[in-house]
Amino acid sequence: MAWINRNWLMFGIIKGLVVTIKHFFQIGNRPVVTVQYPYKRMEIASRFRGLHSVDENKCIGCGICEMNCPNGSIQIVRHHKRWYPQVNIGQCMFCGLCVDTCPMDAMQMTGEYELAQRGRDGLVYDPDKLLVTE
Ligand code: SF4
Ligand code: SF4
Q1: Is the CB of 95 inside a 6 Å radius of any atom of ligand 2?
Q2: Which atom of ligand 2 lies closest to the CA of 107?
Q3: Which of 4, 29, 59, 71 has the CA that lies 20 to 30 A from 22?
Q4: Residue 73: its pLDDT value, please?
């Protein structure tokens, strides 16, 4: 009751309602800031950190990305007689340290963000899934 006595005109609530009504009936020149995902998608920022990719020709299998990963998400594995990183994105926090420390600029992060899987095994990206040729 004390609150109602103090705010009996309820300016705050009315102000909020006016904003809601304006949005609901699309009154005024208000920019749309949401998209109807998944039918529409937002433009991804160039520095967005999504799924990794490894340039097959640049990677030398040195393991520096593995050493620098704070979550232990990277493992260097054998693939067609060479060594490449395998990334467990279930453990990854997408910090980008693996990309920053790669001496060959072979590791990149793409704009891919739809990474949900039904099982944990699907979150392990082996070289077959990560390697790209530029
Ligand atoms: S991605 Fe870079 S840091 Fe990782 S093994 Fe390949 S060359 Fe080394
Ligand atoms: S983004 Fe970070 S946590 Fe993920 S694999 Fe690279 S270094 Fe590890």
Answers
A1: yes
A2: 6
A3: 4
A4: 97
